[in-house]
Specification:
With 162 residues, the protein is of the alpha+beta class. It is built from 5 helices and 7 strands; from the N terminus they run ββββαααβαβαβ. The protein binds magnesium ion.
């Protein structure tokens, strides 16, 4: 019987003026934020997609379509919370995750721990089960030109034993 599964999530959003920058539910001081139908939190979107994938539940676009006005400017913690409830209902729990945020600016080194701690809190995990890494775009491509940010998440889930 298979008792663990892995899921992969990815998201990219454009950086624009006049939006707050939210990363993993943490408000980051920056001149620009991420565009999107919801609050544009690439970390929570990639995490939600990784968890849906691990549980074989499709993707965030199916679950929370951006054509639905219900999700306009939505707090992305809602997507994560509802997805965690779906996993729990299917007897899965999260074991650990590894997160990479791709951003030319601002420098994320000083706030990686804040993002990790907030993700751990949202998931009910020890901080040691959540890892957050940050990479620049080396000044090339859409990340390097600071036109966009991206995030990748890999998540392991395990079957809750009765
Ligand atoms: Mg997204």
């Amino acid at each position: 019987m298979i008792t663990v599964r892995v899921g992969l999530g990815h998201d990219t959003h454009r950086l624009v003026e006049g939006r707050p920058l939210l990363l993993g539910g943490v408000l980051v001081a920056h001149a620009r934020g991420l565009s999107g139908h919801s609050d544009g939190d690439i970390v929570l979107h990639a995490l939600t997609d990784a968890l849906l994938g691990a549980a074989g539940l499709g993707d965030i676009g199916d679950a929370y379509p951006d054509s639905d006005p219900k999700w306009k400017d939505a707090d992305s913690r809602l997507f994560l919370r509802e997805t965690l409830a779906r996993l729990d209902g299917a007897d899965w729990r999260v074991v650990n995750l590894d997160v990479i945020i791709f951003a030319q600016e601002p420098k994320l080194g000083p706030i990686k721990a804040d993002i990790r701690d907030n993700l751990a809190r949202l998931l009910g995990l020890d901080a040691g089960a959540v890892n957050v890494k940050a990479k620049t775009g080396e000044h090339v491509g859409h990340i390097g030109r600071a036109e966009a940010m991206a995030c990748q998440v890999v998540a392991l889930i395990e079957r809750i034993q009765p």
